[in-house]
Amino acid sequence: MAMHLDRRFTGRGPVGHGYTKDNLDSGRLYYSFRVSDRVVGISLDSTDPGGHYQGSLGTAQLDWLDRTLAAHRDDYALVFSHHPSWSMDNFTPDPNRPDEKRHGGDEIIALLRRHPNVLAWINGHSHRNRIRPRGTFWEIATASHVDYPQLARVIEITDNRDGTVSLHTTLIESAAPHRTDYHDLSQTGLASLYRELAFNAPGKDGSLVGDAKDRNTELLLKR
């Protein structure tokens, strides 16, 4: 977090990339931020400090999420986390808060359903394109930049002015060539080599790309 707040490493993004000195001083790795006039983003810290690669939320963070969504009841809300609901089943106690309960994916889905302003829960971790309806919102997971198919995703919100809202979930990939010149050490050449190595990796899982319903979609919600 200190590195995010160091202006030497800002790059093209804002200093902190969402984190503030208050986050650094308190050790709290979750926060909210303004996406647009009508949309608020809520970033969760789903890593369990007790260890293991699956995630969960502590009670303090879950209560904060509930309060933050209530405070922004007049905004649309997008919730972000590293872990998806199906990977949040790690209830190892936090060593710094051994008596605090940990909460999994089903409890988080239930909480988000209580807030009609939530449009989507956006996450990763599984390295797989996967979109699931959650009743009042959509859960949207996107593949990794490390493993094939190395995709990112642009999510656009459209108010259709007919009582519905659409989420457009367009996948994007690198413009680097699929096959590289091994003597080309330019940025494009290295990106191309990266794609080729990922495609030919012995452990490649072709199913990570997902089905058609997990990729370029228009997801409709009544609002």
UniProtKB/TrEMBL annotation:
Gene3D superfamilies in alphabetical order: GpdQ, beta-strand dimerisation domain (3.30.750.180)
Question: Per its record, how is this protein called by name?
Answer: Calcineurin-like phosphoesterase domain-containing protein
Q: What PANTHER family does the record tag this protein with?
A: METALLOPHOSPHOESTERASE, CALCINEURIN SUPERFAMILY, SERINE_THREONINE-PROTEIN PHOSPHATASE CPPED1
Organism expressing this protein natively = Streptomyces thioluteus
Organism's domain of life?
Answer: Bacteria
